[in-house]
DNA sequence: ACGCGAACCTAAACCGGTTTGATAGACCGC
DNA sequence: GCGGTCTATCAAACCGGTTTAGGTTCGCGT
């Protein structure tokens, strides 16, 4: 028994294919009575339209894409993607859309987008990990592929964006440390070519605080940067990290060196609350971003006008890893 | 300027659509000369076949699916998926296949598979987080959807599987602890209805060691379980955890309670090497599993016979979190 | 009684590939 | 020189939807 097609439904309801199609797409101009007959027939036969056929005639893919250009190991440690993707799915699945993932080595990122666009596999894409002077923006415009980004304030991307402001989180962390009496507060940032790393660094710079070390968001990088800071002359009494992973690795280094130092992270990963001492960090909501981004992207694909979507700013979560100067951290 | 179609290529090469199609699919029976003319024309025009049209006429989706039925928060902390997916992609992208992701709440898992199958969006799926008496096996058979699982020894799944053996890793961890003088070695496992949790537990049981607490693979669960163990009478001197996340959370609890206890994790997450003390754990290779699983799935879809694929067993990575009894853990 | 527009529906073309049955021509042996 | 096979190619049907350009039918105004 093969899958029923629109033809079968049409025959069962005694109408033409065209009419069934009209009903399916909620077009006006079909009598109530006929409409019901068709819907009944469809239910009876268990018919669902073949989205392949639909895709062919409407040249829509009914799917959106996500290109991840990171090394697998780094991906594994990043709490952002799974949550973001879950949020995206939340929106997509309600609307019968699918999410197509491409994971590519960093140097094949462009090819990844070209593949998705060229084979018309997706109707639009998410643009993540925005970089300074990101070449992908031009690429996507060239490809004519609708896109939505996760962007930061003051950096126009040319696409509608979910506007995430990391600054209040960083500022709050620094203020919190200052209130605890810290006067030399360092920052361990992510690669500065990433917009989100750059803006966190900028927010921190504007507080006028101490030394800065650039790392790469990895545990290894965070540990290394911490060692540099603590073994240098005039070590800071507190460190603001650009993510939890580096912060946790940094805490371990400080413990090993026996240097008491307050630390804050960024992301509020699940583990943050369960390390010792529990990590003071900044809570973000990638799940929400995913939902919003997907809504925006679908809207864009439908031809809506592009607008940015603000989301609530990151919030500081105070835990035990920050303590008054001179006090003991553990 | 619209995308060229097969018709354009045919016209340019002075042949019929059919012949172009034959060449494209590498079918025999086309003269060398004609073949070259067609390929030249195709290159000239920059033609790539529309996979939508292809999908319609061959009723193949050229995509495989992955259903993730976990809460977003848990997903974020799990290092398995990103690495697995990266491996999968590695295989897929070479073969022009796409990966369609579905993230659903746990109670909608079945609907997720039905959606993928019903809309013919994918030609096959990966079946992950296999459970004891998994109902999805019957479901997929009912749906007639080819599938590949990540399975454990001795538990036939009915589908070709990447055969992962966690036991040597657990056994090695216990032996290692025993050699260090530990005599009461506890196990904090994952939910027992998961096959991988069950088999780790079983391997540990067969070593004849101490108390067992079931947790849920989360940091919170690991911390809670650890507290129970250490605050009970006859606390263990070592704990074997079923994943790194619980192990790290457990270490923190032990530190807070001031109880010296050796711990081992499972997964070898990036962070494992950078906590204090560095975590002794078991290294697995989900990237490889992803590659193998994708190869198997594509083979299966092509109609090859199903066979299980063994992968190298997990290996113990000894670090500082395991120390001789009576010695200091930090 | 007739013309007209609205409401409803149909037939057929189309999307861009794959696949099948037919055919034209080359080559073969006798 | 003729039937028979083989090769290379073509034309047309098909996949399962959407869309457009007409038809019918009907009620209504005059």
TrEMBL record, chains A, B:
Q: Which GO terms describe its molecular function?
A: DNA-binding transcription factor activity; transcription cis-regulatory region binding
Give one Pfam hit by family name.
LacI
- For this UniProt record, give its keywords in alphabetical order, as a comma-separated list: DNA-binding, Transcription, Transcription regulation
What are the residue boundaries of the HTH lacI-type domain, all occurrences included?
4-58
Answer yes or no on keyword Transcription.
Answer: yes
Q: Which PROSITE patterns match?
A: HTH_LACI_1, HTH_LACI_2
SUPFAM superfamilies reported in the protein's UniProt record? lambda repressor-like DNA-binding domains (SSF47413), Periplasmic binding protein-like I (SSF53822)
Under the heading Gene3D superfamilies, the entry gives:
3.40.50.2300, lambda repressor-like DNA-binding domains
Keyword presence, Transcription: yes
Protein's name according to its UniProt entry: DNA-binding transcriptional regulator, LacI/PurR family
């Amino acid at each position: 028994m093969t899958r029923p097609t629109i033809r079968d439904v049409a025959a069962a309801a005694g109408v033409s294919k065209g009419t069934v199609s009209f009903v399916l797409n909620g077009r006006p101009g079909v009598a109530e009575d006929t409409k019901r007959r068709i819907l009944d027939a469809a239910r009876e036969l268990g018919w669902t339209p073949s989205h392949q056929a639909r895709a062919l005639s409407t040249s829509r893919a009914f799917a959106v894409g996500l290109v991840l250009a990171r090394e697998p190991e780094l991906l594994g440690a990043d709490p952002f993607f799974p949550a973001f993707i879950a949020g995206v799915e939340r929106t997509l699945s309600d609307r019968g859309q699918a999410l197509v993932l491409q994971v590519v080595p960093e140097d094949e990122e462009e090819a990844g987008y070209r593949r998705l666009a060229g084979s018309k596999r997706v109707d639009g894409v998410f643009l993540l990990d925005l970089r300074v002077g990101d070449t992908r923006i031009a690429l996507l415009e060239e490809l004519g592929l609708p896109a939505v980004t996760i962007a930061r304030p003051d950096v126009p991307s040319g696409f509608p964006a979910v506007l995430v402001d990391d600054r209040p989180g960083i500022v709050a962390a620094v203020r919190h440390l200052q209130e605890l009496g810290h006067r030399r507060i360092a920052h361990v940032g992510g690669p500065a070519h990433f917009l989100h790393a750059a803006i966190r660094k900028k927010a921190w710079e504007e507080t006028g605080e101490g030394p800065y070390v650039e790392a790469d968001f990895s545990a290894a990088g965070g540990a290394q940067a911490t060692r540099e800071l603590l073994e240098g002359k005039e070590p800071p009494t507190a460190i603001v990290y650009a993510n939890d992973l580096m912060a946790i690795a940094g805490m371990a280094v400080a413990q090993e060196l026996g240097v008491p130092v307050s630390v804050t992270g960024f992301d509020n990963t699940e583990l943050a609350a369960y390390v010792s001492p529990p990590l003071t960090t900044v809570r973000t909501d990638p799940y929400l971003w995913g939902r919003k981004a997907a809504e925006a992207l679908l809207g864009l694909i439908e031809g809506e006008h592009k607008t940015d979507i603000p989301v609530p700013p990151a919030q500081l979560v105070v835990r035990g890893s920050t303590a008054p100067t001179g006090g003991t951290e553990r």
